[in-house]
């Protein structure tokens, strides 16, 4: 591979290679976001429960 | 005495803090391996003698497919442990797996489709491996749907565990499908007992991706497990320490 343009062209397979990479990277990023959000929500929910108990 | 570690693994507060401590030890190596694997696969590895640059889809397709089988196997084993020994944490592990499994199974199918288009001349074929991988996607979705349909968590655990365990039969079917049937899909190049049939500059980035995805799965699972354990044990006293920390 000599130039950036050549690299991006992927020997004519660009329209198959790049969407594949984009898709899998999106799956990774989404899973990280989902996992962190799930933990964040569970913590917020637990905090609310504790606060409710304390006021009772 | 020898069993104390096992009992501690069943204790939610212990699991919660252990998972929190362990997560970075999996997440950072996973990030480095995946970034290195992507660079190696896209830039350093030489083109394939038949497929040219098009084969580079391999570096995201095969790890996604590996992930889908690894997640399902983990889910089924955790469900079985939960069902047999009535360990709540094991059920929480199983429940944490499903969404990850579904997304990477979808990624494996979609990237396979994008690879099939130029190489096989079709985006989809009712080939054994493709068909059983599609069934695996429906298994993950069915498992999630079943859990969502049952309000009582313990009942959802038991019922969904049976589904997960029964469905594990599909994992070896997918793995060996390319050997059992005359398949369009190529046979294994790496995941086999004899030596891999691939030059090193192609193989090393692929192995980095496999290991990176495995560590990523553990890191994601640990994070989801903490969320799952916390939401299940909301009334317990230890929650107070956790949320105030």
What attributes does this structure have?
heterodimer; A: 56 residues; mainly alpha; 2 helices; B: 245 residues
Q: Care to count the β-strands of chain B?
A: 0
Q: Report low-confidence residues of chain A grouped into runs of 5 or more.
A: none
What sequence of helices (H) and strands (E) makes up the elements of chain A? HH
Oligomeric nature of the chains:
heterodimer
* Helix coverage percent of chain B: over 70%
Low-confidence sequence ranges of chain B: none
Structural class of chain A: mainly alpha
Radius of gyration of chain A: 22 Å
Rg of chain B, rounded, reads 20 Å
For the largest beta-sheet of chain A, the strand count, sense and barrel status come to:
none
> Mind describing the biggest β-sheet of chain B?
none
Detail the topology: elements first, then pairings:
The complex is a heterodimer of chains A (56) and B (245).
Chain A: H1 4-9, H2 14-55
Chain B: H1 4-9, H2 12-44, H3 58-85, H4 88-120, H5 128-149, H6 153-167, H7 170-180, H8 200-232, H9 238-244
Helix pairs in contact in B: 2-8, 3-4, 3-6, 3-8, 4-5, 4-6, 4-8, 5-6, 5-7
Can you give a write-up of this model?
The complex is a heterodimer of chains A (56) and B (245). By secondary structure, chain A is an all-alpha fold. Chain A contains two helices and no strands. Chain A has helices spanning 4-9, 14-55. Chain A starts with a helix and ends with a helix. The mean pLDDT of chain A is 91. Chain B is an all-alpha fold and 245 residues long. Chain B contains nine helices and no strands. Chain B has helices at residues 4-9, 12-44, 58-85, 88-120, 128-149, 153-167, 170-180, 200-232, 238-244. In chain B, α3 (58-85) packs parallel to α8 (200-232). The model of chain B has no long low-confidence stretch (mean pLDDT 91). The A-B interface holds A 1, 7, 10-13, 16-17, 19-21, 23-25, 27-28, 30-32, 34-36, 38-39, 41-43, 45-47, 49-50 and B 34, 38, 42-43, 47, 52-54, 56-57, 60-61, 63-64, 99-100, 103-104, 106-107, 110-111, 114-115, 117-118, 216, 220, 223-224, 226-228, 230-231, 234-235, 239-240, 242-244.
């Amino acid at each position: 591979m000599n130039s950036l343009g050549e690299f991006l062209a992927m020997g004519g397979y660009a329209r198959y290679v790049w969407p594949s990479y984009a898709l899998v990277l999106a799956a990774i990023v989404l899973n990280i976001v989902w996992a962190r959000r799930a933990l964040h929500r569970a913590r917020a929910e637990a905090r609310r429960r504790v606060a409710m108990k304390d006021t009772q | 005495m020898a069993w104390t570690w096992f009992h501690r693994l069943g204790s939610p507060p212990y699991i919660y803090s252990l998972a929190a401590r362990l997560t970075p030890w999996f997440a950072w190596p996973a990030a480095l391996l995946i970034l290195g694997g992507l660079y190696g696969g896209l830039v350093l590895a030489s083109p394939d003698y038949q497929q040219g640059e098009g084969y580079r889809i391999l570096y995201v397709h095969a790890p996604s497919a590996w992930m889908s089988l690894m997640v399902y196997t983990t889910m089924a084993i955790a469900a079985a442990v939960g069902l047999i020994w009535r360990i709540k944490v094991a059920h929480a592990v199983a429940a944490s797996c499903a969404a990850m499994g579904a997304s990477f199974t979808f990624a494996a199918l979609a990237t396979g489709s994008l690879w099939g288009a130029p190489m096989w001349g079709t985006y989809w074929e009712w080939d054994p491996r493709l068909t059983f991988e599609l069934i695996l996607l429906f298994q993950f979705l069915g498992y999630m749907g079943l859990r969502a349909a049952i309000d009582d968590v313990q009942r959802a655990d038991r019922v969904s565990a049976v589904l997960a365990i029964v469905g594990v039969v599909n994992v070896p079917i997918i793995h060996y499908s390319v050997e059992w049937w005359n398949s369009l899909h190529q046979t294994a190049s790496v995941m086999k007992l004899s030596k891999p049939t691939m030059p090193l500059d192609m193989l090393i980035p692929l192995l980095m991706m496999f290991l990176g995805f495995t560590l990523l799965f553990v890191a994601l699972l640990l994070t989801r497990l903490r969320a799952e354990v916390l939401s299940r044990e909301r009334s317990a006293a230890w929650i107070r320490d956790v949320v105030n920390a």
